[in-house]
Amino acid sequence: MTASMYDTLNRQVLALLTGEDDLVSALANFSALLNDNLTDLNWVGFYLVKNNQLVLGPFQGKVACSRIAIGKGVCGTAVEKNQTQRIADVHQFEGHIACDSASNSELVIPFRREGVVIGVLDIDSPSLARFDEIDQHGIENMVKSLENCLFG
């Protein structure tokens, strides 16, 4: 996708979520929006930090791991480092958790409330190196809009 296409999606996020204060509803619609508009994905959704672990939240795709330890796998690493993880080949990522063996690349973006990571957006693709810098930047901006809509 191009940067301008991500700008359009970001405007859709703002239209969809402005005034929404329910976390589950917002995350469900956010994941559905991405699933409907991005190609070559096999899973998109959220994990939420609860009791010092990640717990499965709203998503689009096949069944997934219900719980992931902080610091484990791509999602747990994103939380531990408080940093986006863009992985071209998950099979080369030490400690990768294979919830779906069809996934080959992954983009995981932490989302925060008052600067504290409260969860991650996890996007998987069956293709190697599916996500580039444009995808990362565009989706990070969408996550910032999600944070602003929910937590001001």
Automatic annotation (TrEMBL):
Residues 44-143 form the GAF domain. Signal peptide: none annotated. PROSITE patterns: UPF0067. It holds the Pfam family GAF_2. InterPro entries: FRMsr_CS (IPR000614), GAF (IPR003018), GAF-like_dom_sf (IPR029016), Phosphatase_reg/MetRdx (IPR051330). Belongs to the free Met sulfoxide reductase family. This is GAF domain-containing protein. It comes from Shewanella youngdeokensis. The lineage of its organism: Bacteria, Pseudomonadati, Pseudomonadota, Gammaproteobacteria, Alteromonadales.
